[in-house]
Amino acid sequence: MWLYILVFFITFFFMEFMAWFSHKYIMHGFLWNLHADHHKKDHDSWFERNDTFFIFYAIVSIIFFLLWKNDILQVGLAIGLGIFAYGLTYFLVHDIFIHQRFKIFRNANNKYARAVRRAHKMHHKHIGKGDGECFGMLIVPFKYFK
Questions:
Q1: I want to staple 115 with a disulfide (CB 3.0 to 4.6 A). Which of 22, 61, 69, 140 is the partner?
Q2: Cβ pair 37, 18 in contact under 8 A
Q3: Helix (H/G/I), strand (E/B), else coil: 146
Q4: Directed axis angle between helix 52-69 and helix 76-90, to 10°?
Q5: For the residues of 62-99, what is the DSSP string, one character each?
Q6: Chain centroid to CA 63: how far?
């Protein structure tokens, strides 16, 4: 049981690195065309092309669930749940808390919440593909806590 809990938490924390890596090198790289509308909205839809990245990680999570269900990978459930939990956390922090796609969590005003918002604001000050900063989500550089 402890192994599965450990794998869950390792996966969850590894996903922060994956979010940073995919944001910096994939979203601001060769798949910029899917991410660009997140930095500068060029349509009237509530949905963004950027939302397709959620689908990718959902598929990866489902694959690990299936590997576990078919007795191919014992820790597949823990990995799948870790990816899912990070995705849910990312959605709550990024889409709801920061971008207010749903009007909840508006009054959160502790040091960490302010730092997350500041770091993300600094990321979005760059409208183009290059010269970005603060590509992660949950781990915020110390300078934004001031």
A1: 140
A2: no
A3: coil
A4: 160
A5: HHHHHHHHTTS-TTHHHHHHHHHHHHHHHIIIIIIIIT
A6: 19
Q: Is the separation of the CB atoms in 17 and 86 below 8 Å?
A: no
**Tokens in use for 77?**
């459930």
Tell me the C-alpha distance between 44 and 22, whole Å. 26
Q: Which two tokens stand for residue 74?
A: 């014992």
Question: How many angstroms separate the CA atoms of 137 and 35, rounded?
Answer: 16
**For residues 50 and 37, is the Cβ–Cβ distance under 8 A?**
yes
DSSP states along 122-138: HHHT--SSSS-----SS
Q: What is the pLDDT of residues 3-48, one digit of tens each?
A: 999 999 999 999 999 999 999 999 989 999 988 888 877 777 778 8
pLDDT 10s digits, 111-124: 988 898 888 888 87
- Residue by residue, DSSP assigns 109-122 as -SHHHHHHHHHHHH
Determine contact, residues 85/8, Cβ cutoff 8 Å.
yes
The residue length of the chain stands at: 146
